[in-house]
Amino acid sequence: MSDNPPMLHRVYFSPGMFGFGRLASYDYFGHLDRALTERLRAAGDQVETYVAQLSPTASIRRRALKLSKLVASTCDPDAPNGGPIHLVGHSTGGLDARLLASPSASLGVDPAALAWRSRLASVTTINAPHFGTPLASFFTTVSGERVLRALSALTVIALTVGSPSLAAVSALVAAFGRVDRLLGLEVKVLDRATEALLRGIDDARSHEVRAYVDAIKGDAGAMVQLMPEAMDLFAAGIEDQPGVLYQSTASMAPPPSMSPREVARTLIHPMNALSNAIFAILYGITSRYDERYPCADPRAAADNERVLTRAFGRPPGARANDGVVPIHSQIWGKVVWVGYGDHLDVIGHFHDDAPSRRRDIAGGLPPHLDWLRSGSDFDRARFESLVDAIASGLLSSVAPTLSGASLHVGS
User: Fold this and answer.
1) How many CB atoms lie within 10 A of CB 244?
2) Which of 63, 163, 301, 303 has the greatest number of CB atoms lying within 10 Å of its CB?
3) In the beta sheet, which residues pair with residue 47?
């Protein structure tokens, strides 16, 4: 047994598109946080975790600054050996982490406030749009901004409260389904659908959720920056910090279809049909392709194709995506997990079977919830495999003698 004291890992989570830190008494990263903590403690180490409270669609630079302040204020900078720091970002949060870690980035802060970067051990990006996403291009339109607000409200409500109003979601689907030819009337329908969703929340939670949704209207800087054309500039200006492990996860969902099993589910639960419809529209927009800005790293095309072929048995096409981000855009650094799953599945928001759900509730844990029905059949086994891969990378980043993270296939 080692005489060395336990290592203290500090893990910082950064949410992204449709994401939040803690809202309406619900922790967006709760499942991932708990699972990572269990694995690091099982390795004999100590863990402190923090979740950044960020404006969901503010510019990447503004979000990175808030993340930096969180790290600086909690990492015990005066300790002689404060322990390693890990940044874990989902979706846009992965870009926040990369920008904050980059030695070439100018964040406009006192260098002393970034002294903790000498302790940075790893940057983990989970389904992040490193080369942009066509969905962001849509969300920059007037109608798209309203759709983003409505979908964000739906995400919060579905995860924190439960099934939202079917009438409100039906109106959202009807308006969203005409996104390419929205006129003033349909835009008003989107606004009414959002209000109807928000009215379904009790007063204790309404203020928090409304503030979250209003923040999207007040600052949508990230949507402009996540367009494939804009991410071309991000890729040119951001560098990896030497000595830091960069690892990523990537997933895709099957093209939307109504299998017999999905048809049966929709007959039992009408909300499933609406969720399927929303995912199909998101998937369709995200699958748009421009050969000038292909949402992929041309320098690593051959390597990435080998990784994805190993996971899926064939290389995914350029249009393959998780409903929000093209799969080829999600790859950065060492790819440690690849599999079928949608954008929310991979951080623990998936459909769990009844026995597992009962065990979680009996143990005082929130059940896994899934409102974005993508047909990916993501389950607890895939989630555990994904967390194993991430945890292995975090541990290897501070113990080079370990074998290090290897690719976990979750398909």
Assistant:
1) 18
2) 63
3) 9
Q: What is the distance, to the nearest Å, from the Cα of residue 47 to the centroid of all Cα atoms in its chain?
A: 22
Cα 272 to Cα 119, 128, 379, distances in angstroms: 45, 26, 17
Q: Which residues contact 396 (CB under 8 A, 6 or more apart)?
A: 245, 402, 403, 404, 405
Provide the pairing of β-strand 245-252 with 334-340.
Answer: parallel
Instruction: Answer yes or no: is pLDDT of 406 > 90.
Output: no
Q: What angle do CA 222, 235, 335 make, to 5 degrees?
A: 95
Name which of 75-79, 98-102, 245-249, 304-308 the model is least confident about. Answer: 75-79
For residue 189, the SS3 value is: helix
Q: In this predicted model, what pLDDT tens digit does every residue of 254-309 receive, in sequence order?
A: 998 765 555 555 555 677 888 888 999 999 999 999 999 999 998 888 899 999 99
Q: Which of 249, 227, 250, 232 is nearest to 327 (CA)?
A: 250
Contact assessment for residue 342 and residue 322, using Cβ atoms and an 8 Å cutoff: yes
Q: What is the pTM of this model?
A: 0.90
In whole angstroms, give the CA distance from residue 349 to residue 16. 14
Residues 6+ apart with CB under 8 A from 376: 251, 253, 254, 340, 341, 342, 345
**Token pair for 325:** 């981000």
Residue 292 token pair: 């000038």
The one-letter amino acid code at 64 reads A
**Cβ neighbours for 292, distance < 8 A, ≥ 6 positions apart:** none
Give dist(CA 373, CA 351) in Å, integer: 9
Residue 264: CB atoms within 10 Å: 11
How many CB atoms within 10 Å of residue 79?
Answer: 10
